[in-house]
Design a protein that fits this description.
By secondary structure, the protein is of the alpha+beta class. The chain has helices at residues 2-17, 23-30, 34-44, 74-81, 83-86, 96-124, 140-149, 219-222, 244-252, 279-286, 298-317, and strands at residues 50-52, 59-61, 151-159, 164-178, 181-188, 193-198, 202-211, 236-242, 260-263, 269-275, 292-296. A hairpin with a 2-residue loop joins strand 4 (164-178) and strand 5. Helix 2 (23-30) crosses helix 3 and helix 6 crosses helix 7. This is Transcriptional regulator.
Amino acid sequence: MTDKIIRFFKIIHAIQARPGISAKELANICETTDRTIYRDLRLLDHIAPVTNEGYGRGYRFIGNFSMYPLNFTEQEALVFSMLPSIIDSSKLPSDFDSAYNKVMATHATEKSRHKDIIENITEIIQMGTPAYREQNDNFLYPIIQASLSQTTIDTVYHTQSRNKTTARKIDPYFLVPREQRFYVIGYCHLKGEVRTFRLSRFRKVELTNKSFHKGDFTISQYLKNTWSIERGEELISFKVKFSAEVARYVKEEEMFVRPKMTDLPDGGLLFEVTISREREFLNWVYQYGPAAEILEPKAIRDKVKVQLEQWMDKYIERTYIR
């Protein structure tokens, strides 16, 4: 999610600088695919008046929409704002004051517009509420803001597995969508390591005045061999046979790992993938019911057999009581 928002800003700045720019050129600037750019432009259309005037004419903004990419950090803005008090104004050109005022006004405008864009994006993204809570505070905006500005956040977080709430300082590196939920991946000062936090379990999120750096952290390495969001210590290699009736749907799935898929003579599909934890992958396989057969590893195939026998015991041998 953070990468997408940064890409949005790159697209906006590129269109502003080069009206008529093509999707392919935007893809090169953002280091992504044409298909991703088309998706991004459809979303941006909700928050910025971007238009395509026809084949070969590229993208431009309607009316007077613009952003001013000064890219000042808060520290840079503070230093620049102190200039008049630390330099000899008598040695400056006569137009310095008006130029200085214009730069500071531009920074304020840019900051306000960036804030409006992030707020509009968070309004577009709709999230559910955990069943056990009457309402869910939406901390999406401050977390996106903190991630973009690389600012540490003060939080109160509920750990569901231990049913415990703790105060933590977190450096939010990335915001990751998984299975209709958002997760924050970042450095936890309390635990002294990078952790994964479910967004709906935050009870408080406030920005601090402390900045952070990601160092050599990469999200691709952190989530390597991860089926969805849960990480594990050992690698498990799966072979699953999907029947012909669902094979085309499996091929259409959007995945975070790269499986090997082999078409079978009967129209079915042999699906091979290596991941670091089984639970999320098995839940995905279960949705296909008897159209999916786990061939390997044998230990997990046997485990599924036992589970099926337990289900049979509940649904067939017992009498249902209202």
